[in-house]
Amino acid sequence: MATERIKITKTFDNKDVHHAPVTVILKGPTENEDNLTIFVEAPLFNDPNDPGGISVVEVFLLNDQDNYLEVILSPHGQHYVLIQGGYRNKLKVEMPIEYTTTKEETRWSGKAIIPGSYLPPKVTKWNVYAMHGTGETRHFESLHGDINGKHEKPDFHDLSLFGPIDMGRILPNNWSQEYYSSDEWRDYL
Q1: Rounded to whole angstroms, how far apart are CA atoms 166 and 164?
Q2: Of 11, 32, 36, 19, whose CA–CA distance to 117 is shortest?
Q3: How buried is residue 53: exposed, middle or buried, by Cβ count under 10 Å (0-12/13-18/19+)?
Q4: Cβ(159)–Cβ(62) under 8 Å?
Q5: Which domain holds residue 18?
Q6: How far apart are CA 60 and CA 69, in angstroms?
Q7: Residues 5-50: pLDDT tens digits?
């Protein structure tokens, strides 16, 4: 099983993060499954459990045709998974996944099992974001940030900011012909 492990150490505008980093691990399938497992380990902030201030980690997986999967995970068990066909073009929303979380005093962890068919065929790029805080004190962190100052405010859907990933190594079937006929993507490719 191949894995990819990252730590988010920068804000969206490329400044240092001043707390323990968010860690995200992508883990490929076992012999009997075709799932991508996403593990999150992150600081637990004292954020309200409401849409305006909830802490989240977002994982985006993109192919060269600008099709992408967006996975949003929170420490409180909420999750939101959607397929996008180009910049902010929602094709499918509220896709079901298995998701569990564990909270300790200062940290939380999450495990999301994503069906392989949810990923667009031949993923080549990705980005990971973490958000916490509320209002003016909301913090936006990024694996691949806006190092050139292109945006005044974070735009997580700016696909030009995404960095490379070898998804063929992590989830080999993602690079097979079968992905072009998956139920999730057949009508959009």
Answers
A1: 7
A2: 36
A3: middle
A4: yes
A5: 3-188
A6: 6
A7: 999 999 999 999 999 999 999 999 977 788 999 999 999 997 777 6
